Amino acid sequence: MRWKPTTGPFAVDGQEDEAQMTAEQGYALYRAMLRIRRVEEAIARMYPSDKIQSPVHLSIGQEGVSVGVCLALGPTDRVYGTYRGHGLYIAKGGDLKKLFAELFGRVTGCAKGRGGSMHLVAPEVGLMGCSAIVAGIIPVAVGDALASKVQGSQRLVVVVFGDGAVDEGVFFESVNFAALKQLPVIFVCENNAYAIHSRVADRHRQAELFRYGESLGVPGERCNGNDVFGVLGTMERAVADVRRGCGPQLVEFMTYRWQEHVGPNTDHAEPYRDPRDIERARRFDPLNCAEGRLRERLDLTDDRIAEWETDVQRDIDEAIAFAEASPFPDPASLFEDLYEEAPSCGS
Amino acid sequence: MRLVTYRDALHAALSQAMEEDPTVCVMGIGVDDHKAVFGSTKDLVKRFGPHRVFDTPIAEGGMTGVAIGAALGGLKPVHIHIRCDFLYLALDQLLNLAAKWRSMFGGQMSVPLVVRAVVGRSWGQGAQHSQSLQSFMMHVPGIKVAMPTTAYDAQGLLLSAIADPNPVFLLEHRLLYELTGEVPDYCRAIPFGKTVVRREGDDVTLVANSYMAVEALRAADVLSGYGIQAEVVDPVSLVPMDEATILNSVRKTGRLVVVDTSWVTCGVSAEIAALVAEKAFDSLKAPVKRLGMQRTVCPVSKPLERAFYPHAGTIVAEVLDLLGEQRLDVQVPETATSFKGPF
Fold first, then answer.
1. What is the pLDDT of residues B171-203, one digit of tens each?
2. Which of A86, A308, B292, B342 could connect to B260 by a Cys-Cys bridge, CB 3.0–4.6 Å?
3. Model confidence at A10: pLDDT above 60
């Protein structure tokens, strides 16, 4: 087991595992996080307009996890996620136009308007699906890894879930089976401090969730999820271990949910929160931390950041315009896609 | 054609599918042990290896998720449950994920998963080894559901289920495993969505599925002794359902008794009664009658167990009542099989 002591979700920066990377890679991490942040801010701003008529679970403040995880993976590797999936979708390379069209319920959306914010999908880039039942999708990822092993494929599978998912039985069933069969899967617990309005310590006597892996035969570690470079480094090592045939891995990334559980607003004054959380969260904002590091070590300039901001804003504007111009699904298509047509087998 | 037991028909279909398609794998509690799910998976692990035929931890929910993921990953898993009752643990996976995956993600992926489960009955199976979950699966769109009655159905529908790109739930009945029937020498898939007329008759329609179709046929034999010709109609495929064959029969006879292997409330019998009320009401000469498990918990003690289940005797009594015939004490052997337990 590798465990780097932290002070809860807000560990200071500087991890041993920081990835060795080029300027280009460092910038790519930052730009992916910036993209997620600005997209979700745009979603929060437009939410009162009712153009998005479905629940949204924002991941502002958690961008480091999605980005560090996805950028450690290859193009054929697969990812499974949850209803808090905007970050994962964008980080894995999902199309922004299809994202907004999906949020707007348009037929051009990534799930033709049938899935919405909670069920994002982009199989063309390896995002196999996001589910709104906490923990339900964890064994599905394990099954995909089983198929990969049976087929002798190099495909690796990552499943990202929240700390709340570790309360569920299928989490343990899944980790056990993956360990038993030594499957190429990485369990990523994105611990954002709250399951809806409940703290981990209110639901677990043993609140260091990564330790559950070890008891089932899966190496577990806990890392600072707000340091995208550390996340990438940790994941690159886990990916290398899995590809070498070392069996599954469990990583718990400590981060913090800035927004309310569901909806566009913040709720920092609510009694379930620790009043110091938001101040600490701002101090360890993954975007600011990464910016500081890049300025320190590379020649990141204000001009370059401004250019990236402009690029992201342009992409968002274009995606929204695309979504607005796209048609709603035809009501006559209601029953489409329930079943795939089966091969004919005579009578 | 050859005469085989239901179990051997399942075994032959599974073997053939595994021979022909290397992506087919068999998983579940006990599929590779010496009992081999009542013989239906016998020696498959020897022939196809432990990577294609494997025992699972006792974790129905998690393992159903694994089966779904394996299906998404390119395999065709056949996940077997030796008792249907265990599937309550897997309903989240089956109904929230398998049933919804294709539609929820805009038709981009399918889940080619087959779930086989066995219904127990008699010899004291009791409260938790006797349930029959077809209506749970029928209620939620996205899963195909069938209850093979004969060896021919078992073989053909299992092959069809494995070839199907969608999740399929096949509900087998323990009391059918010993029964024999004719099957083709080379196993052939038979399509879903066919209701089978097991026996023709003009006086009353008995819609009965799975083991209840066997009991209904026995009841029909007894009734013919009273000059009553019952038509026995078996909705082998429940989703999709061949409604026309049921409706045609009711239009011919004007009387309907539905007999299901499960409880009547919100069950198959309710669904079929509603179907007939909606689409063939004018042809009814008498109220629709329904038979199923009594609305209580399945007991173990023999006299209670006998009172709990419908059987040929209760079907005969119901039909006589429906036709206004005098109710006689009809003696019919308790079951149509030699099943003596223990499981």
1. 999 999 999 999 998 889 999 999 999 999 999
2. B292
3. no
Contacts of A225 (CB under 8 A, 6+ apart): A9, A62, A64, A65, A68, A190, A191, A231, A253, A254, A255, A286
Token representation of residue A91: 């980080």
Structural domains in chain A, sorted by start? 2-324 (3.40.50.970)
* Amino acid letter for position B230: A
B258: β partners: B207, B290
Closest chain B residue to A344 measured between Cα atoms? B191
Is pLDDT of A13 > 80? no
Q: Do B110 and A340 touch (CB under 8 A)?
A: yes
Among B69, B75, B92, the residue with its CB nearest the CB of A142 is B69
Name the pLDDT band for A346 (thresholds 50, 70, 90): low
Average of per-residue pLDDT values in chain A: 92
DSSP alpha helices (H): ranges in A14-74? 23-46, 63-70
Domains and CATH numbers, chain B: 2-183 (3.40.50.970), 196-322 (3.40.50.920)
What helix, strand, coil percent values describe chain A, rounded to 5? 45, 10, 40
Q: B311 catalytic, yes or no?
A: no
Residues of A with CB below 8 A from B189's CB? Answer: 345-346
SS (H, E, C) B282-297: HHCCCCCEEEEECCCC
Q: At what angle do helices A63-70 and A228-243 cross, to 10 degrees?
A: 40
pLDDT (tens digit, 9 = 90+) per residue, B274-301? 999 999 999 999 999 999 999 999 999 9
